[in-house]
Design brief:
alpha+beta; 2 helices; globular
């Protein structure tokens, strides 16, 4: 597993969802299917799927917001009904691996970031991008940090 710190900008058009953090694993894919069924409405798309997650800030923080979207090359002038255009530009610690090991990837990235002395930015979205590969799908995780 490779870890690094980067500054990166994301532009996306997507659908907003919210719910219990413990249900994100089922709710996010359902909303992503809805989004993909409407992907032809989105201009300038790159075909890369992306999800943004509100960080869980404490044990009593049980519900949060998330977005599922498609990355776009440039600012979109015509935003489809019910969708949002978002831009983020932040410092992140990041890693990439098999989506079947998502929890392990998150845990290892958090541990690495802590060992390196990075402090998480709990006011910015956690980002995941999804990449089809010959043997399934890979996910790239971007945890926002205070730089």
């Amino acid at each position: 597993m490779t870890f690094k710190m980067i500054k990166k900008e994301f532009k996306l058009v997507g659908l907003k969802g919210s719910g219990e953090f413990q249900n994100f694993g089922s709710e996010v894919p359902l909303l992503a299917k809805r989004l993909l069924s409407r992907s032809d409405e989105i201009d300038y798309q790159i075909e890369s799927e992306i999800a943004l997650f509100e960080p869980k800030k404490s044990a009593d923080h049980t519900t949060g917001n998330f977005y599922v979207g498609l990355i776009v090359r440039e600012r979109v002038k015509r935003i489809p009904t019910g969708m949002d255009y978002l831009e983020t530009n932040n410092h992140y610690i990041t890693t990439r691996g098999n989506i079947m090991e998502l929890d392990k990837l998150h845990e290892n990235l958090l541990n690495w970031g802590t060992a390196q002395g990075y402090k998480r930015d709990l006011d910015s979205y956690i980002i995941e991008t999804y990449h089809p590969v010959s043997e399934g799908e890979e996910v790239e995780i971007y945890l926002p940090i205070i730089a």
